[in-house]
What we know:
Blueprint: H1 10-18, H2 36-44, H3 65-73, E1 82-86, H4 107-115, E2 120-125, E3 133-134, E4 137-141, H5 147-157, E5 162-167, H6 173-181, E6 187-198, H7 200-210, E7 216-221, E8 233-238
Parallel strand pairs: 1-2, 1-5, 2-4, 5-6
Antiparallel strand pairs: 3-4, 6-8, 7-8
Helix pairs in contact: 2-4
S-adenosylmethionine binds at residues 46-48, 85-90, 95-99, 107-108, 125-127, 142-145, 168-170, 175.
Amino acid sequence: xxxxxxxxxxxxxxxxxxxxxxxxxxxxxxxxxxxxxxxxxxxxxxxxxxxxxxxxxxxxxxxxxxxxxxxxxxxxxxxxxxxxxxxxxxxxxxxxxxxxxxxxxxxxxxxxxxxxxxxxxxxxxxxxxxxxxxxxxxxxxxxxxxxxxxxxxxxxxxxxxxxxxxxxxxxxxxxxxxxxxxxxxxxxxxxxxxxxxxxxxxxxxxxxxxxxxxxxxxxxxxxxxxxxxxxxxxxxxxxx
Length: 240
Ligand SMILES: C[S@@+](CC[C@H](N)C(=O)[O-])C[C@H]1O[C@@H](n2cnc3c(N)ncnc32)[C@H](O)[C@@H]1O
């Protein structure tokens, strides 16, 4: 009889992640109760961060990705011109990775539109029923697991040199690596590409995937008080 696999402890997981990489930095910080980006997430209903845990339209606890994003972009948000995000936040509960029946499609695109006041925001999603157009926001159909659909999307968008690209779509390694492979040429030389909602198991798979690429990659585990790590990790990729 096979012995059941032991669950991976946080310590064992971070040691496996660090093996062969060697460097890591750890910050300890309190919550910035005036963070603009987290406040915009509360306003529009995106789960990338929160100022208040009350009244969210989505069922799961909020991530705290805004804490990193604010550190990366607060000083240059007025200079960001082009943003792309996969995953609008469908409220169709039959679609994987949905935001629940009360979810507000387009929430994070509106967050980016307000946070980056000079940027055009391009969004993509597999759910055609939630596509919309608004001031500085354009959305398109895309299945991030289908290279042909990704290529068709980029042909339709017909733009390049993106400052910030975010994968908040299906949240499985196969989908994330497929979208990355067929989209990274659209990132500006000094742009930032982020894969969100990564589980520890997938973080180790991304480590392997990026080990043979020329990119500069951070595997970021974001910790919250009284919450398990779960899918609260990011892969942050730069070309330099
Ligand atoms: C977690 S939601 C995005 C939330 C949104 N970014 C926000 O913060 O408000 C994930 C989205 O990915 C979409 N999705 C699921 N599978 C997909 C696929 N294969 N290709 C593209 N989008 C997909 C879902 O329809 C859903 O809208």
